[in-house]
Structures are given as structure tokens and as C-alpha cells.
Amino acid sequence: MDISEELTCLFTAEVEEHDQSYVLEVPKQEVDVGYVDSAEDYQVALVGTAENPSQSAPSQSSDTHDQQPETDQPPVSKGENRVVEVSELGDQGDGLARVERGFVVIVPETKKGQRVRIKIETVRETVAFAHVLEHLGSADSMASN
């Protein structure tokens, strides 16, 4: 799956039915942190989850069968900027953030629970390394706003 460089934010949400329409809730922290402006219009892309493959986007035609499956590739690329939450600390004391499919990004000089904007510096098959561009606070402080 190709993801646009113009991606503003990425989060998980349920589609809820309300009267004659469907609604997605945007997490408050996306507006509070400044990635989403509640006064602006946005395009939304929906991607099905592995738990519910019937909602996934249709697969490409069979003439792409000789290409490697996209899940074999790391979900990040060198130079990419992202906002992540440090979920744990590694053996060397560096922060670890998990992104799509549980892929680990090592973020030095961070603490568990911190939310940071990072730039991916190195990408390997099973792990990526990044540096902090901006400290955005802790996940706990975001939830209490």
C-alpha cells in the first residue's frame, strides 16, 4: 500500500452509524497537538484491519504476482517524519516506538510514554533508527487535556 507524503495523521477509529450517515471520531489529541485543524476540511482514507479482511481495500490485479508482498517491506522509509509514542525502553536505554505491524523504531534520548515527532535516519529489515525533531509531551498529559 502506498501512503501519500501529504498524510497529516494516522489513527485507528470505528465507523459509527448516526441517522442517515456514518461518523469517524478524530482523537482529540490530533487536534490538540496541531496535526488537525477542526476548522479545515480533510480527505480521509480507510484501511481495513487484519482482523476484518472483508473491509480491506480490494487487492490489485493478478498481474502483480511476481512483485514481493508489501508486508515484506518495512513500513517506514529513510527521511520520513512521524509522530510516535515511546512504548518501552530497550536494553541500551533507548526509547522504542512501535508503528504498523509492530515494526520497531529506536529513538534515542526518549522516555517511556513520551510522544515525539521523529525523522527516520536508517531503515533495516526488522528495525529503524530515528532522531527526535520535537518533544510533544507525554501520552498521559495528552489524554488529560
Structure description:
The chain is mainly beta and 145 residues long. The protein has helices at residues 28-33, 139-143; strands at residues 15-18, 21-24, 81-89, 95-98, 104-107, 114-123, 127-138. It is 8% helix and 32% strand. It is globular and about 55 Å long.
Summarize the structure.
The protein has 145 residues and is mainly β. It has helices at 28-33, 139-143, and strands spanning 15-18, 21-24, 81-89, 95-98, 104-107, 114-123, 127-138. A hairpin with a 2-residue loop joins strand 1 (15-18) and strand 2.
Give the strand order, joined by hyphens, for the main sheet.
3-4-5-7-6
Question: Which series of helices and strands comes N to C?
Answer: EEHEEEEEH
Number of strands: 7
The helix fraction, in percent, is under 10%
How would a crystallographer describe the biggest sheet? Answer: 5 strands, mixed, barrel
Global mean pLDDT: 78
Beta-strand content bin:
25-35%
Structural class, judged by helices and strands? Answer: mainly beta
Distance between the termini: 34 Å
What form results from the Cα inertia axes? globular
Number of helices: 2
Uncertain spans: 52-69
